[in-house]
Fold these 4 entries.
Entry 1:
Amino acid sequence: MACFRFKLWWMAQKMGDRGRDIPLETQFLMTETKYGSRIESDGAGEEDQIVYTVFLPLIEGRFRACLQGNSRDELELLLESGDADTKTSSFTHSVFINAGTDPFATITDAIRAVKLHLKTFRQRHEKKLPGIVDYFGWCTWDAFYQEVTKEGVEAGLQSLAAGGTPPKFVIIDDGWQSVGGDPLKDEDQTENKNKPEPLLRLTGIKENSKFQNKEDPTAGIKSIVNIAKQKHGLKYVYVWHAITGYWGGVRPGVKEMEQYDSSMKYPMVPKGVVEHEPGWKTDALALQGIGLVNPKNVYRFYNELHEFLATAGIDGVKVDEQCILETLGAGLGGRVELTAQYHKALDTSVARHFPDNGIIACMSHNTDAIYCSKQTGVVRASDDFFPRYLKSHTIHIAAVAYNSVFLGEIMQPDWDMFHSMHPAADYHASARAISGGPIYVSDVPGKHNFDLLKKLVLPDGSVLRAHLPGRPTRDCLFSDPNRDGVSLLKIWNMNKYSGVIGVYNCQGAAWNSNERKNTVHETQSGSITGIIRGRDVDLIADAATDPDWSGDCAVYCHKSGELIPLPHNAAFPVSLKILEHEIVTVTPIKVLAPGFSFAPFGLIDMFNAGGAIQELRYEEVKVKKGAQLSELEGNGVPEESIENRSTELVGVVHMEVKGCGRFGAYSSAKPRKCTVGSSELDFEYDSSSGLVTLNLSHMPEEGQNVHIVKVEI
């Protein structure tokens, strides 16, 4: 499995079994070798004979390495400086290789070793994640693109809140800044009218006229920030800017910007990128150039920009176009040197002005940037959500999952905005719910699917976030769910007391290396069937409260409403057509007494139901001698549910539950009583499946973060 750059900005996944299948610009490579390994493992099962080997091309000095295969099935290492004057004659530490029998641990160990060697970045768990990851948000991009206005921002916030899903953060994307094209020369004005539009460049630090307050011109962008926070209750307001200021950089010769000493530079795009993306030869950035701030002045630039924003109440920035720096290193020490200088300045400014670590990295999938990420905690995981590009949606879900295998070790992947009213809305929404990253939409004001959004968002604007980056399950790491016509994609994540699996049919479209674009290909139009096991959640044992847990799970399927008690290593089938999905909550079963077992799912009408359970404690009650309990013995997974025929209490389940809605759990016996706080609550029990449901009709009382739920069995 290779993560390679199919565009300058973004990676995608490619699977194969020969050296020639490894694409140009591969930045992460993992291989699977079955049988015959000399690596010792903890067990003796067939899976323990699989060895996973991770190859990480690195930064060495001022050179950046990547991998590629050739027609002889050999693996090649390519090193580039991006500057003809930056040369060396030998390399000694350009690729790191690690092997083991646990793929996820092998990757983590490799990244940790590289971190200790390079000393230029930190891992995800060492960084502060900004508060936006725990709340629902809205981004202006796909709603307005560059035509965004102050009035449009307020309309979007008001529209979402009116339907019961109030956003708590907003990203004001491209369109708020002061920009302009280069001044036209006399000869330019008389030339062909078909000449391309001039590339826009930053002409000032402050907002443009659309975001100025006519009644109070001094308020500027602070006006919409105050409206968002004071009138609409938002916690965070972010704005967009490019790493070079704007797409075309900072315009040289503008009096207000002359202190940054920007000069025109023309991108020199690496050959491997151009092979994948030949359009660079006629791209506006390549032809018209970029006004690059002098690296000696770039901290001053970021500091003054971010100081202005922070003073206005802005909490963070989405920093776009990051990979462009690798193309501008000629005469400046090369791509690695220039990227490091810019990122050091950016990190320092963000730490100074945005104490919540308010930054999202975007268009940043080169290892020049990834391996100097000390500050940034959130990174966009793939190419954009394209609402009008129908073939992109299955590609998007696969890309974010596989890219997260690599990116998720260093930052929390952000799986991008989406539209809640869209043919693929349900497909995208469920994936965001299990991604572990921020959840936000880019709906046009007034165009929302609130029934769908309420599967993601609680009435207070918070979300039920999973704890880790969502990644493919172990048995999907080397399958090809976009191309092979037979595989479903399974994505796993963890909550505190449960796991979650998203299952997706992503077949039918993929990156085509011959045509160098995404294309649709022939695939079976019917359903594809895959299997789900409890252990597909790789760390499911961590969710068990019992150190001697047997491995038995209860699973709840969100779409079908089916509850399945699943013994250790047992599996059940799931069949899906293209663009269909299923979300499965997986909870370890606790045996309270022979025949009496329990497993809570959480708020089962939400995609990530188990994220609602904040605390879980089982109180086992010693049954008096002679009490008539069920005769059922065994592993606690009964063939049919039973009722406690005695008046004796077997156990009490204590839970703290966030949010409101329909709460569900598996119980092998009908509970005696359910209470919320001090009040007994009616519940329903389906004896055929063991599903217990009760309704938490409102959010926890003011001053309390959770409902105190007790179930007596």
Entry 2:
Amino acid sequence: MTIATTDSAVVAVVEAPQAERSGADRGTAKVKAEFLIQRQAEPTPRTEAASEGADTPTPAPAESTGKRSGGQHQNRRQKNKSKAAHTEQGIRLCNKTASGEECTLGDKCTYSHDVAGYLAEKEADIGPSCVNIDVYGKCRYGLRCRYAGAHAAAGEEKADQFYAHNEVDKSMQIRVRKKQVAFPRTEEFEALWEREAREGAGDSAREGADDSVKGREDGGREKRQRTRRGHIDYRGKTYLAPLTTVGNLPFRRICKGYGVDITCSEMAIAGNLLQGHQSEWALVRRHRSEDVFGVQLAGNNASVLGRAAELISRECEVDFIDLNMGCPIDMVANNGGGSALLSQPKKIGRIVRTMHHVTDCDVTVKIRTGVMKNDNVAHKLVPQFEAWGAALVTLHGRSRQQRYTKLANWGYIGECKQAATRVPLFGGGDVMSWEEYWDHLEAEKQCDGIMIGRGALVKPWVFKEIEERRVWDISATERLDMMKEFARFGLEHWGTDSQGVNATRRYLLEWQSFLHRYIPAGILEVLPQRMNDRPPAFVGRNDLETLMASSQARDWIKISEMILGPTPEGFTFVPKHKSNSYED
């Protein structure tokens, strides 16, 4: 095998099939001897994120993560949000005042109008260029912007530029919360379903129940859905998995830049959408670069999921709506959603049929092999999904019990592919190289396409490698430029004031809890790097490459400071995610 490097040099590297690895080599990445470092005699404690990645030259953790509960730190995200909030400066300037306008609220305004006092304590500007000025010609943050020095160069506002689709306005969210929005399709389908149940009709009668609800609209409202059902040929397309927290819009833009075909929102809880939660509705936003895009819903109630799907289909521009039956985390599964649904096929049938009948776009499903590791059920469900109207089935090759441990069962994914006669079946699990991708897709013919999740978090350029069928020995400088691009996208998304900068930094750090697991191709003795290979302690080819391999949060913070300036006083970070699949 050869790998392409950034200076066009070509390096010969040995490729060894995973099956040939045994003994001490199995489960450990083969790094060239000159880059290996001696392990310390005494083991050092690591952050939870460190257990996801490599043992690196940085020996001590940034801070203790505390005791694990149920395999997850469910309150981490809130902790980081609270810490970010505490770093805000004391004076909170009025938006109108910050923009040079007169505040019309007068004494009723709860924010400060003391410009001199605000500027006296405002943190220093981070850089000379404001992304809002560059893209839109205007920055809505005014004096609050951490790049305010660049505002003097502002020209005319670029009216033709818009950020994202699916900006559902606040008034709609309030109407939904107050139950002032009608759901005619869901209500009529539920009535038909219940009537057929009372009359004892079979499933075949219910499958035709949508004929009388097609084309119904909410009070003649103009449709915003720009796509139609069945217009997408999913086969052979690359698919970035919906990823909670780290699969945010800025990260999806990074992956679009590397050539991924299909993107999907972070998992949105259907009940929260119907309660008008602004933070949940923010998840459905679609950047203009996302040409094939879907929204993923989680829940366990056909009525709730039907209403959420109907509303999204009516109000948003989506190509498909995905039903999450793969999430293994306790917060979702213990409430009967995610992978817990796999033990209730009758409920799944009603949910999928309801979502199919109340929407105009495709309905897709994401599942696991089953709930327990030795009790696979996916092969029984796949043929039923075809009958229920699903346009795509994506199967992660592990059970809910396994979460992300051990190897994904690609042999079983291949068996399920044989059970799918019409609907495309995508596989997923452990893929992070073009060799693995094309082996599953072409050599073994185990699926019609592959969804990539953690592999894309570790190396988002995997989509470029898949397209070009080559390994890219990306340099540390290029990886830093990629993170700078993410930060720029983040500032455009979350804002250029202190709150937006802190949010961008937090999401960058969350991403780095995966990025640090990458082992540069040029220092590997055996390619490709595999998801379940635990890296030995190594140094990079330069200081920046070594720093990027650190599993310590304090080193990730150092990298963030290269991009977003110094952290506020008292800033700390605890990574949210833990999901390894190393062989033990």
Entry 3:
Amino acid sequence: MVAGLIRTLATGLLAAAAMAKDVTYYWDIGYVTANPDGKMERQVIGVNGVWPVPEIHASLNDTLVLEIRNSLNTPTTLHSHGLYQNGTNYYDGPFMVTQCGIPPGANFTYRIPVQQTGTYWIHSHYSAQYVDGIRAPVILHDPDEPYKYDEEIVLTLEDWYHDQAAALLKQFLSWKNPGGAEPVPSGALIGGVGGDTQKKLAFEAGKTYRIRLINMSALSMFHFSIEGHTMRVIEVDGFDTEEQTVGNVILSAAQRTSILVTAHNETDSNFVFHADMDTDMFDNIPEGLNYNSTGIVEYSADAPLKRDDSVDWSPFSDIDLVPRKKAAALGFDVSFQLDVFFNQYTDALNHGTFNNITYVAPRVPVMMTALTTGADALNATVYGPQTNARVVQHMQDVQLIVNNYDAGTHPFHLHGHHFQMIERGPAPYDASYNPRPTSPPMQRDTVTIPSMEYVILRFRADNPGAWFFHCHIEWHIEGGLAMVILEAPDVMQKRLSVPQQILDHCAQASIPTEGNAAGRSGFDLEGAPDGPFPYPIHWTRKARGAMAGCVLSALVGFATIFWYGWSSKKTYATTAASPARLAE
């Protein structure tokens, strides 16, 4: 019997190996012009002279190969959002976490093992570059697809800006913006089109469609619904769920959801679908902004539009979804509390922070510090004060308690993992309370946390690497709302070998690839980023000096006024007492 099981297992492994293949895409990343909303033609970042960037498709056990040429005048990197990259942390993409950037005119090859299935996307992880258009769906197919449907539709939701990302970022990170108001988009794109052009989804009678919704926005949250049709959620962020009927789906920036929709048997009417931007995310609503975007479910080109105002807009709760693959709730070996604040800092800019530390990239990419500092890599100090680094051991169960004390909603993304969503509640979280769910918790890779709420996330540290955890509102990550989790640095040193291309690119940019956050040995961090800091709440020496100067200036001013007034009085008295002078 054992021999039979071994033969069966071997046969299965050989079959999987035979089916696995390299799926290669050649991308020349460069500038093109586009006018997707019909209101303004602008420069965007496309691929092979095309924008929107075409979809990427691969299957479980394939190797996704991306041959990249950077034809921009700035560096770039690519992050395959939601992919585990187990064993390939160096291909994860965030600038100065795992890469130094692909220099202008250079080539780079990403070789990513497909270790999962579902709906993902790819985008630049260099500055705010993806806001200018370098983003695309990534669909990873399951040869043993658990759900039955006739066709699938990939539908992207994006906020769209008429201004360039660099100018918007400069506007956001400015002393003239002390409140941290995010740039409000010029409009929305559905499936790459906007303005007066409506996206059409072609339906055939009786067919069941899988619609893969992907929010590729910089800021906006979308509410999606289809009039006159029933939607059944089957996946969020690449994690399959049991079917759940919903009236609407809410997607924050970077989130994905798959729904099943069965078409009507009659084809005598077309219907409206909604992709409405949530205006609570905006500090103001510019005149003329159309935030209620719609498209058409089209059964027949000449059929009339049938409106149905009975859409169920009740809240969509992802934590209540039931995972298809059941895994018991994790406990935790180590727990980190992350308190979210936005404040003006000593550089006069409004920064996002975890525990009042705003992320500033170190001089050496974080992953390379972990790989080159030996036993010191197990000490978070070596990564510098501004990375907010946390070190965990291999196979520990990790808990993140995130309290959102900011006035806005934030979508937080963890690289390298799906996490279990254990609990939500009003902030602050009571640290004496340890929730123990009795049913398998839902998992995803990007979680939305409303203002003054907390969420508890747990994951197993089974993927050695340097993994970014950050807000996926692009303006916020650039403002410092990020930190890094160093997962098993000692195991990283045994398993990971950085590709020579990455080292060459670092050398070309004069970025060191060894040592601590300052490029030095041990814990000598001279030269590593240190600050900005919160404005102190007590009287500093400079503040006392400034106040003393103000008081002294005031006293001098009062004395001058008094002296001038007294002198004028004496002059007037002398003049009044001299009739001869008056006669003159």
Entry 4:
Amino acid sequence: MKVVPLGAGQDVGRSCVLVTLGGKTIMFDCGMHMGYNDERRFPDFNYITTEGDFTSRIDAVVITHFHLDHCGALPHFTEQRGYHGPIYMTPPTKAICPILLEDFRKVAIERKGETGFFTSQHIKDCMKKVVPLHLHETVWVDDELELRAYYAGHVLGAAMVYARCGNESVVYTGDYNMTPDRHLGAAWIDKVRPDVLITETTYGTTIRDSKRSRERDFLEKVHRCVLRGGKVLIPCFALGRAQELCILIDSYWERMGLTVPVYFSAGLTEKANRYYKLFINWTNQKVKESFVNRNPFDFKYIKPWSRDYVDLPGPMVVFATPGMLHIGMSLEVFRKWAPDERNMLIMPGYCVAGTVGAKVLSGMKVVEIDQYSQVQVNIDVQNLSFSAHADAKGIMELIRQASPRNVVLVHGEKSRMSYLKSKIMGEFGCPCYDPANGELLEIETGQDVRALMSDQLFQAAWAKEQERRQKSAVPSDDSVVPAATPITQLPVRGVLLLGDGKRPARLLDPSEFDLDDIPVVSASGIEADGRSDSIVAADTEELTPSSASDQVVFSTRRIFDGAELAERMGLSSSVDVAAAALLAIRELLLIDPATQPKDVDEISGKRASVVRVGRSIELSVPAKTAECELPSLYVSWAWEEEELATQVLVIINRVLG
């Protein structure tokens, strides 16, 4: 599988990751970088092709949610660069995305005077290519590539996406939140065991304190500021954290009987309420239940904002967009209020490097707003994390849920990724990568072997596990008896017979194994427990012949009727039937140059101890045991000589009958 970040590789913003699996290529997200105003704003699409034929090279584009750092470059890519293939996103994302794109376009063109930007018509034409992707619904892009969305929390309509093509699969998380809040639930995914999990790491080194203490701290700071006559500016995005904090402020104002005016500047409040009503099933259970009696997004104490209010005397609280202070009303209000030390700026979310918000949080006292103006920062700056991103604990929990074979870190700073990378490899024992933008990452993928387990094998494994638990439950001396726990994992050791297309693979007890049932196949990715008497099926990467310490060996013991074979071969009762059979097998092996034995140990007259074929195949006569007094032959071979071993087994069956 190939993974290439065109954006968000060791960086936050401009999310865009190309993944090639099973011969199909998917572009996950197509965002813009809020810290740039030049060509660096968009992902480097020239990496894909310089000829402009993107449709033949990309099978699908998947947008995880409506934030501009995940969808902002979409109209540019489709209408200006020429991609005409399908675009997949959830219904809430499809509804809200064009509104935010149009709002940003107006700011870029009408206020900043930028040229060459996408137009309103470009946005409309882009949205016509969108195919809705509903939660837990499997959508087939074509006959081979399937997509499935899982709830991601974060914002209304945000989704994690599972993609599968052939034997390869990937989960791309986008932005997600593992902690439920006042209006959205927590992210959740099945144990899909993908080959690769691509996860965001915005807060990869942070473990947040409790949500209740954060809310209390936020309300206390706001209350303290307005009591001293100051103004509070809270930059936030129009949908998501805005609703979360507005619910918090509105309920607090009602509880405390406050009359200080609270304003929301977005101009999207009414539209936001409309979409929350339309997609109420994407909110949490509490909102769904209260929605019947009262819309929790109809705020009693929060009023629409007007530019004329910015110079009004007296305390007030203003929610202004966007959340990073890089453009728009939040930057305009900040410019006016920043010099006054009575005022307060509360930054509730993450700020991309290069934005005014990031500069203020870094402690700069003089901030350059643009190339023509600067502002003195005397305002009280508070950074209270109400970000809807998963923290380090949440990221580890999602990895535990999905159980991937490999993890790729994106959408985070390199320093944070390095810490998280070592923690993931240490706790889960799986490879972890943090590629930079434009860096090609090639990941070897394994293959699951799905097999039908026999009743006999399952009953034997279950009985063995029960016996083990009973022994471990016996207390020693005065120790406490451990509490009983359900059996969630059952180690099974058996013989795996791979299917031939018509019959499914089967996992059998060694006593059920018949060499005549072996299909002629080339086995790879099967792990065996050294030189054991049985084959063990496992889900692992394909091993190379050079990894001698990890050599995969198959073995079996072929039991046969000694009296019947002695009669057929005309042997006397004094002859060792097993040794005579091994010698006869050796003679047949000599006929074919491909199966000629390399060497034979202890051949003396009619007796042979070990016959070796190829590099790894060994035939020997094991000692009789109390459990099995019948004559038998022991055969073992390495997985890379599976086809040659099959030929040898055919000859063995011919001799033994």
